[in-house]
Amino acid sequence: MYVCLCHGISDKKIKKLVIEEGVQDMRTIRKCTSLGSQCGKCVKQAKEIVYESQQQLFKQAC
């Protein structure tokens, strides 16, 4: 699903950055993808995806 329509960034891209690349915050995701730099409507949903992905990593580690 597309999270940021302005830049064509999907939830899969955000999850990959968190899970595979170790990105832990929105600031880094915004640097890597330009997410939220145009209209900003995607930021809230992206934060939720980051949080859920971090929770998934935590569960895998335990």
TrEMBL record:
Entry cofactors: [2Fe-2S] cluster
Pfam families: Fer2_BFD (PF04324)
Residues in BFD-like [2Fe-2S]-binding domain copies: 2-50
Keywords annotated in UniProt: 2Fe-2S, Electron transport, Iron, Iron-sulfur, Metal-binding, Transport
InterPro entries attached to this UniProt entry: BFD-associated_ferredoxin (IPR052371), BFD-like_2Fe2S-bd_dom (IPR007419), BFD-like_2Fe2S-bd_dom_sf (IPR041854)
Family stated for the protein in its record: Belongs to the Bfd family.
Protein name, UniProt field: Bacterioferritin-associated ferredoxin
